[in-house]
Design a protein that fits this description.
CATH topology of the largest domain in chain B: MetI-like fold
CATH topology of the largest domain in chain A: Rossmann fold
Radius of gyration of chain B: 24 Å
Shape of chain A: elongated
Number of helices of chain B: 13
Radius of gyration of chain A: 24 Å
Oligomer: heterodimer
Strand content of chain B: under 5%
Number of domains of chain B: 2
Distance between the termini of chain B: 51 Å
Order of helices and strands of chain A: EEEHEEEHHHEHEHEEHHEEEEEEEEHEE
Order of helices and strands of chain B: HHHHHHHHHHHHH
Strand order of the largest sheet of chain A: 6-7-8-3-9-10
Helix content of chain A: 25-40%
CATH superfamily of the largest domain in chain A: P-loop containing nucleotide triphosphate hydrolases
Number of strands of chain A: 20
Largest interface: A-B, 24 and 16 residues
CATH architecture of the largest domain in chain A: 3-Layer(aba) Sandwich
């Protein structure tokens, strides 16, 4: 049974269709990330699941119960907001216990849960402070703690790390992963940061313009993107794209012929069909006997590796290079595109072939 | 000295001269009133109003407070003072609370037609009193509470509501929406969120609203005259009655003392709360 099940969900604000027929089953214990650019509807979807926004059509089920028309507080969810939304006039302890006190949980149980959450998040010493006396990371912990004490069936996170600086964000990422593992909780997490999505998720739903373009485990999303959009949105540095033509068992790009090596087509393609070939920079390698010849443009050193940029016909190609090799590289080089890692897309439908 | 800086200096002198002149223009009447209130009746009659009291005394103040006559009643302005207090306290509390609840509802709960209600309130804030006086009088006498304490309190609450609602709505619009969402997920409803989340954050704006209403209601003359009734006339109305009573000699010293006594409460409110007033206004304007 799914912990959360969304089916046929649609939502519009006036003439703007924000969600279009969304289907999203989430298994218990999953860490599902809704990933997409701003304005793709991911936060609206989260708000609808939370009950903070009404739906126009469709059903939301949580733990097997239809909660489409229930108040947020009666859905068995807890939520962490981007701005933390801590009650500024209450101490941390009061912030954590507010929801429990509203629900008339016995005082001893409230204290037990607050201490448990504070301990888990290492905010014991902050319990008597006001939110204004906390740093960003501490506020974030309190916001998470406020969700934890609810002992909800599902935890919803709305871009919780986007207000933190890079270092703290990395720390909190690890923290969230640890919490997920320790609690075995079902988490639905919204972000526009694909690194957060890749590192945290057990499943990623990539969204665009109110639709889910791909819903799969992170490795699949990265290695076999279902659409051109997913391919270009996920991955940093971004995937390379080249226009080409499918001729028997190879893709012709400009003058080069790139054999497909048994590419697993999802549909049966037509011979001579236009395609877009996608390949990630780490699958473009230097090789003496490489299939294509390219001109060196410039190098972007990124520490662990260097991103080399090349001109290949009318296309610009990036390759992940070993810094020592990349240093001082210039002129014409031969590159090999690893056929095992090709992604082919139909230019008209943008779907994976 | 260069020509430019000489010009600037002349400009400066002109500016200060103007400012001093404006200060005198506004303060001389006040100084005259204060000095007159400290004179004896004889002194007022014999000398020019600009001469200072030879032997300042607060006798006129005491008389104004406790035994000045309005018609046949000689109880001083303290009668009106306590009437004003009785009108003021419930009116301020009710109108401020009602305004904050309305503002909260209009800013953070998606009501159907909230914008229309807002627009209507805005229009109401600009309707001249004179237009609705007669219908209001008719309405109150129909339900039988015309000329009573509840009547004048109701009038003040109703007339205060548009501005109060606008004030609070603008303040609450600046509060992050996610706070309300978080409280809803925590299980709190409309009233609980208002009482435990919103109201504790509203201290500054509550002070501003209270100051506005206190001074507005205290200084009101027209509504008090029409709706309060003979037994509840506020201090302003009584002051006018004292000043226009024409039995015997006109005691300018007592009249001025009564006027100052009437003006004192709003002045004290301003002095005590000026700091909060500025803070509240800017808090609402700049950040949530």
């Amino acid at each position: 049974m799914s912990a959360v099940s969304v089916s046929g969900l649609s939502k519009s604000f006036g003439h703007l269709h924000v969600l279009k027929d969304i289907h999203l089953p989430i298994d218990a214990g999953d860490f599902t990330v809704l990933l997409g650019p701003s304005g793709c509807g991911k936060s609206t979807l989260l708000n609808v699941i939370a009950g903070l926004e009404d739906t126009d059509a469709g059903i939301v089920e949580i733990d097997g119960t239809d909660v489409t028309h229930r108040e947020p507080s009666r859905r068995g969810i807890a939520m962490v907001f981007q701005s933390y939304a801590l009650y500024p006039t209450m101490s941390v302890r009061k912030n954590l216990s507010f929801g429990l006190r509203v629900r008339s949980v016995p005082r001893r149980e409230v204290a037990r849960r607050v201490n448990w959450a504070a301990n888990l998040l290492q905010i014991d010493e902050l319990l008597d402070r006001k939110p204004s006396q906390l740093s960003g990371g501490q506020r974030q912990r309190v916001a998470i703690g406020r969700a934890l004490v609810q002992q909800a069936k599902v935890f919803l996170f709305d871009e919780p790390l986007s207000n933190l600086d890079a270092k703290l964000r990395a720390e909190m990422r690890v923290e969230l992963k640890r919490l997920h593992k320790e609690l075995g909780a079902t988490i639905l997490y919204v972000t526009h940061d694909q690194i957060e999505a890749m590192t945290l998720a057990t499943r990623i739903a990539v969204m665009r313009d109110g639709r889910i373009e791909q819903y799969a485990v992170p490795d699949d999303v990265y290695e076999a993107p279902a659409t051109l959009f997913v391919a270009s949105f996920v991955g940093s540095p971004a995937m390379n794209f080249m226009r080409g033509r499918l001729v028997s068992d190879a893709v012709h790009v400009g003058s080069a012929q790139l054999p497909l090596n048994g590419y697993r087509f999802r549909s049966s393609p037509m011979d001579g069909q236009e395609v877009i070939l996608g390949i990630r920079p780490e699958h473009v390698v230097l090789a003496q006997d490489g299939t294509i010849e390219a001109e060196t443009l410039f190098m972007e050193p990124m520490g662990a590796d260097t991103l080399g940029w090349f001109h290949f016909g009318e296309h610009r190609l990036s390759a992940r290079l070993i810094p020592q090799v990349a240093r001082g590289m210039s002129g014409s080089v031969r590159l090999q595109l690893l056929a095992d890692h090709f992604s082919l897309f139909d230019p008209s439908t943008e779907a994976r072939l | 000295m260069t020509a430019a800086s000489r010009h600037a200096r002349i400009g400066r002198i002109g500016l200060y001269a103007l400012l001093v002149w404006i200060c005198l223009f506004f303060s001389i009447p006040l100084l005259v009133v204060i000095s007159t209130s400290l004179k004896t009746s004889d002194e007022v009659r014999t000398f020019s109003i600009f001469t200072l009291p030879t032997a300042p005394s607060i006798a006129a103040w005491i008389k104004a407070w406790s035994s000045a006559c309005t018609g046949l009643n000689c109880g001083g302005v303290r009668v009106g003072f306590w009437n004003s207090v009785r009108i003021l306290i419930p009116s301020v509390i009710i109108s401020v609370l009602a305004g904050s609840i309305t503002g909260y509802a209009l800013s953070h709960w998606r009501l159907r037609g909230a914008n229309v209600i807002m627009l209507l309130l805005l229009i109401c804030a600009f309707i001249p009193y004179q237009v609705i006086l007669y219908p209001l009088v008719k309405m109150f006498s129909t339900i039988g509470i015309y000329s009573s304490l509840p009547c004048i309190i109701a009038v003040h609450v109703v007339f205060g509501l548009p501005v109060m609602s606008l004030l609070f709505r603008n303040f609450y619009t600046g509060l992050p929406e996610e706070l309300i969402k978080a409280a809803r997920i925590d299980g709190a409803g409309f009233w609980r969120i208002f009482a435990f989340v919103i109201l504790p954050m509203s201290v500054n704006i509550l002070i501003v609203a209270t100051i506005l209403q206190t001074t507005g209601i205290w200084n009101d003359y027209l509504l008090g005259l029409i709706f309060a009734g003979r037994d509840n006339i506020p201090m302003t109305v009584q002051l006018n009655a004292i000043a226009t009573t024409s039995t015997g000699i006109i005691e300018y010293n007592v009249n001025t003392a009564a006027a100052l006594l009437t003006a004192l409460p709003p002045l004290i409110v301003y002095f005590v709360s000026g700091r909060y007033f500025v803070r509240g206004i800017t808090a609402g304007a700049v950040k949530g």
